[in-house]
Amino acid sequence: MAVIEVALAGRPYRVVIEEGVLGRLSEAAAPFLAAYGGGRAVPFVADSNTHRLFAADVEAHLKSHGRKAEWFVVEPGEDAKTWGVLESLCDWLLALGVTRKDHVIALGGGVVGDLVGFACAIVKRGLGFVQLPTTLLAQVDSSVGGKTAINTRAGKNLIGAFHQPSLVLIDPLVLGSLPDREMRAGFAEVIKYGLLGDAAFFAWLEANANKVLAREPAALEHAIATSIAMKARIVAEDERETEDRRALLNLGHTFGHALEAETGFSARLLHGEAVALGMVLAARYSARRGEISASDAARAAGAIAAAGLPSQLSALGLTCDGAALVDHMRHDKKAEGTTLPFLLLRALGEAYVARDVALSDVAAFLDGELAA
Prior knowledge:
CATH superfamily of the largest domain: Dehydroquinate synthase-like - alpha domain
CATH architecture of the largest domain: Up-down Bundle
CATH class of the largest domain: Mainly Alpha
């Protein structure tokens, strides 16, 4: 078991990592469920896969503690992060009679967490919510930090708010039901923490990736706890990404979001897979600029490939050119006027924000990667 404090001024909260914590939700989240009882149901939001896997056990647990659950179920995937689904969720919460003292439970991956967090940010100007992430990607990244959003035609996560959860409960046992591809996609975000700021952790991941992916308890808890501890420190220093500190968490995402857009935000390329390939491209572009060695870039790519993640842009079979991918980047929410900051590497374990990158050079670089 590990407990990590997210030390935001005036609004601290805990991240609890404990096997079986889902099965003792009433105790672990007691202060946030106190308002429910006497006929009032606890509002849960889940996707249909998570609902199928965990709803019966959750309901049985709550019943044994004199409570019941009410469910809002969405379809899996990014299509749930739309204006229409957000509106339906907000109407559902209002119909339940939620108050600003209530807490909504987000049970699922990053899509559910993003959707619930945004709904709770705007319903009655702010409801509380508890994150119960059920994917590795959500456990190590999106469940902590308060970034919430939906997607629009203009791009991914462009409409949202910063709204921190009141509690995050991480149960590594739920990952037993996670498909291996989703597990690998989540592991990409774990690798990210090593590459952006902890060379020793990156080396540990190179040696222990198979144990984490096999869900060996000690290795898995260490990977999750180390990742969350780093994110908690960064979020506490730069909650709303107004400085470069929190921006480091976007390593791999500028390239990755462009690849997601080009593949239609579809199952063809999962978010974690896009981030993995984005980190490879960031490392190779850093080497192109002479900031890291070609051997270090190859080491980063090798660690990602060894985890079963994509490491060659040409292998995606895209029919676009580098300029088209750069055009996707122009719509990135991190764009600043006519410039776009890039997360690059000075060393393995040391990322930084570069604001002197010529997009024409990025396009030429990507042309080479597409043809490799």
